[in-house]
Amino acid sequence: MLSLPQRIVVEITQMPILKNPSLICGFPGSGFVGKLAIDHMIEQLKAVSFANMFSSSFPPQVLIQPNGTTDLMKNTFYYYKGETSDLVLLGGDAQPVTPESEYEMAEEITKICDKLGIKTIYTLAAYITGTFTKLPKVYGTSTLEQIVKEFHNYGVSVMNSGSITGMNGLIIGVGKRKGITGICLLGETSGYVVDAKASKIVLEALVKMLGLQLDLTEISKKAQDTENLVKTIEEQMGHRTTGESLHMPQHDKKLGYIS
């Protein structure tokens, strides 16, 4: 069988000049936890796009835009200029579907980090439990032990086992080898629904760490929609939970894998 080369194409419209920037990534994954979070940040901060990233390892489809046109699947870089430091936000439509292209994309992202002077990467992801939880937690890991020791200041529980799959994990691992500090914040989610509640608690932890002012009104409304959906699912399953969670038997909670 003929093996075609995989390609990553980065189209930069204008490279911004930033002061002390950090990169925040949220890719589509389980519960869309990271994507909902980063999309909310982009909208609320009125971040400006400056580059698109395309991959031949994205799903082979085009997306219909609000104006009725079509476009290839892509991930997009945005920037936001703050009072004391700036942010680069990376979100988009998909993650690559092969390990080779995931590593290649992570390398390309760190190249852009180098051009912009980015020394810290935050990724926003999902901590999958297979359980509907009334009081979900935020878990965290970092490439620096000192940062891990400070998680308790922000209400973040330390991950001390398991793995982080996909781009939300790979980027901080590749960045570590380039001298970039990596932090991953993970919202606890069942993995069965689009979980804005998990996105909201991740954002709450992130803004504390960054000292950032961010309006969470819209994501809070979506989080309430998630709660209503879970309640409906519980009722349809005939469960009236008296504790904190509803367990779904077909998922192994000990996996603790992340996306």
Description of the molecule:
With 259 residues, the chain is α/β, with parallel strands linked by helices. Residues 241-257 have low confidence and may be disordered. The protein has helices spanning 33-45, 99-116, 145-149, 167-177, 196-210, 217-237; strands spanning 8-12, 22-25, 48-55, 62-64, 70-72, 75-81, 86-92, 120-128, 131-133, 138-142, 156-158, 181-189, 245-247. It has 6 helices and 13 strands.
Summarize the structure.
The chain is α/β, with parallel strands linked by helices.
Question: What are the SSEs and their pairings?
Answer:
Blueprint: E1 8-12, E2 22-25, H1 33-45, E3 48-55, E4 62-64, E5 70-72, E6 75-81, E7 86-92, H2 99-116, E8 120-128, E9 131-133, E10 138-142, H3 145-149, E11 156-158, H4 167-177, E12 181-189, H5 196-210, H6 217-237, E13 245-247
Parallel strand pairs: 2-7, 2-8, 8-12, 10-11
Antiparallel strand pairs: 1-3, 3-6, 4-5, 6-7, 9-13, 10-12
Helix pairs in contact: 1-5, 2-4, 5-6
